Amino acid sequence: xxxSGSDVHSLSPDRFLEEVHSFEFxxxxxxxxxxxxxxxxxxxxxxxxxxxxxxDRLITVLCHYCVGETAALEASSGLIAIAPNRLAKVFLATQxxxxxxxxxxxxxxxxxxxxxxxxQEIERRAxxxxxxxxxxxxxxxxxxxxxxxxFAQNVILESLEFTVFQAHAETADPxxxxxxxxxxxxxxxxxGFGENELGRRLKVSPHVRARLAAVRHELDPLVxxxxxxxxxxxxxxxxxxxEIGRSYLAAVHRLGFx
Amino acid sequence: xxxxxxxxxxxxxxxxxxxxxxxRFVLEETGFDEVPEKYRKYYRxxxxxxxxxxxxxxxxxxxxxxxxxxxxxxxxxxVYCMACFTRFTVTRxxxxxxxxxxxx
Lengths: 258, 104
What we know:
The complex is a heterodimer of chains A (258) and B (104).
Chain A lengths: L12 H8 L2 H12 L17 H28 L6 H27 L5 H8 L2 H15 L3 H26 L2 H31 L3 H27 L11 H9 L4
Helix pairs in contact in A: 3-4, 3-5, 3-6, 3-7, 3-9, 4-8, 6-7, 6-9, 7-8, 7-9, 7-10
Chain B lengths: L2 H6 L34 E3 L11 E3 L5 E4 L9 E4 L4 E7 L5 E5 L2
Antiparallel strand pairs in B: 1-3, 2-3, 4-5, 5-6
């Protein structure tokens, strides 16, 4: 913990890592933006009227998000067992809590929108590409492939969610915007953990790069297709959709997968 | 600015900037709420490409949060983004702007 009055940037790298991966850090971070909300919604935020077609498209998009969040919840909990050190295990425990919360607030939003059986609705509206991505991610976790699973979950999935949720929040109705903005704040930690964890491992084990490139080759089309489907539902013009992948592409470029 | 903390700040400018004393800044919270309270003044929301960064600020390229320091930043300085757990070294781009370069 930084001493009172000292500069945060004066922490040693090891002390910094210890601090940000702690449950203590997580607790005081989320307290800042979640304590005044209920199911991700600020009390002063009012519901805006939606047309029937807007409501239906929003339900479809939220169902897609629920598949992604369920995949991340199941995968991040499985990853704790194979995490290589205590800091990664503790961080993943906080990510499990985040993902569980994301799923809960999205399900609650579906109920707000009049969906009486959200889990059945998610099953009905889920896309094949998203389900295939989820299945493959869980296979990587079950296969105890730490680097590939972190790459698939915290770099590919989380980066694309981060950008899609940010873009969606800009045009969403006020309540959905509250929910998405809260999720995006959590996603910053998830994408940063993934990129830094892989960056450190690639530095000492460059041979891992070829395996991750193969994972990327396999999973990119699935997650990009599902992004495209979601952006179509949101009414984002095709010309603007490539921008959605920019955060993810920047991350893989920094990791050396240009 | 705490003098002891000053001496612990990593890095030194590798060019003529070392000869000039660094500007000092008093940081105030700007509503950034994604890190514990004691760290919030070191960060602010980025307002997009038109956002003019101060000489004590640099943009986190991973999560697009503005990282702030109590002193003017110079190439070689170390800064952290606590919102995404990333360590950076401050560099100067070809266009002369300060940038954050990731250190894994």
